[in-house]
Specification:
single chain; 370 residues; alpha+beta; two-stranded antiparallel sheet; globular
């Protein structure tokens, strides 16, 4: 029984800022060391990012952001985890509900009354009743709607939501599942000289995305048929990518070895996921790679010998939005669909990488117009 991703929606906060401006802010407030400032400039300039979004407005000098800065622009004592999470609770709830409404209103052939399951995803904050609860209430869904939350898994967690949706639809052909990810990474910005914090600050951003999954045949536009999923843990990398909770926000460890670890494990991982389908990388027309950073996209393109257009959607999302953790690969899939390049029957391989080091992948196929 085929299972389809029928609709993909994305949303970002209203506040946006150029990468160059973010670099200036970090240099001004994180360090007085000329050497550290040179490192920061190199990280920001070579990130492949031109613009990012944030629920905060500290790049606009409006005086409205009292989390990191006072009204006169001076930096405050680093906010506590609670203070950051309070902002997350307010802002994330709104984005989850907006995305849920956009999915049911923007996907032909579906209404809110059809939704049977809600799966929400995030690693940048917590609250209860959670976002799954608020989506159900906002859409007027019955209290019996099955709802789940995938928390604190990191950049690959969208695949966990998609796996759950596929399983629900295979168990119940009438199931209609909303999978929604919202990540507000900028709330955990750190102004200090730690290189891991500088790396994280140079790439992470805020955004949300969601999909509607069902076994129903596509109604009036192309969809993505889910063919298979695959997960792998590398032998090394547990200490190179990690996400922990501190007293002053969540702390990301993202070592410079991560792109090399991904490259070293890419061929055997793809051998498993594609081999089971009797395919090779040459049989894949399009790649939706989570752009955790410019070097990761470069390594994947180099290792697989891809044409630039095959992975352009990943570079475009990185350039225009940065790394929005688990939501990012859904942005890439949306960009790929909206490009109009994939033809009916073309295969798409989606990939994301996260703590562990974990490599998640999914094999998809474009359908024809109904």
């Amino acid at each position: 029984m085929p299972i389809y991703i029928h609709g993909i929606e994305s949303a970002v906060p209203e506040n946006s800022y150029p990468q160059a401006q973010a670099c200036e802010l970090v240099q001004e407030h994180a360090t007085e060391s000329r050497a550290i400032r040179r490192i920061a400039r190199s990280l920001y300039r070579n990130s492949g990012i031109e613009k990012r979004h944030s629920v905060l407005d500290h790049w606009k000098n409006t005086g409205n952001d009292t989390l990191f800065f006072a009204a006169d622009g001076t930096r405050l004592t680093p906010p506590t985890t609670r203070a950051r999470n309070d902002v997350y609770t307010r802002e994330a709830r709104r984005l989850y509900v907006d995305l849920a409404r956009a999915l049911v209103e923007g996907t032909p052939g579906f209404t809110a009354a059809d939704v049977t399951h809600v799966v929400t995803i995030s690693c940048t904050g917590f609250f209860a009743p959670g976002p799954d609860y608020h989506v159900v209430r906002a859409l007027g869904l019955p209290g019996s709607t099955r709802r789940y939350h995938v928390g604190f898994m990191g950049c690959y967690a969208a695949f966990q939501g998609l796996r759950m949706a596929e399983a629900f639809c295979r168990a119940d052909p009438d199931a209609v599942v909303l999978v929604i990810s919202v990540e507000l990474c900028s709330l955990h910005l750190q102004f200090n000289e730690d290189v891991d914090d500088l790396i994280a600050g140079s790439v992470f951003a805020d955004g949300g995305a969601g999909v509607l999954v069902s076994a129903r045949p596509p109604a009036s536009r192309p969809a993505l048929e889910i063919l298979s999923f695959h997960t792998a843990l590398t032998a090394e990398g547990e200490e190179d990518m990690a996400w922990t909770i501190g007293d002053e926000g969540f702390r990301m460890k993202l070592s410079t070895y991560v792109p090399d670890l991904i490259q070293a494990n890419l061929t055997p991982v793809l051998g498993d996921v594609l081999g089971r389908a009797g395919l090779t990388p040459e049989d894949i027309g399009w790649w939706a790679v989570h752009p955790g950073g410019r070097a990761i996209v470069d390594k994947v393109e180099e290792t697989l010998g891809l044409e630039e257009e095959q992975i352009e959607a990943s570079r475009a999302v990185l350039r225009d939005y940065g790394n929005m953790s688990s939501a990012t690969v859904l942005f890439v899939l949306k960009a790929l669909l909206e490009s109009g390049r994939p033809a009916a029957g073309d295969r798409v391989c989606a990939m994301a990488f996260g703590p562990g080091l974990t490599i998640e992948s999914g094999l998809l196929r474009m359908t024809a117009d109904a």
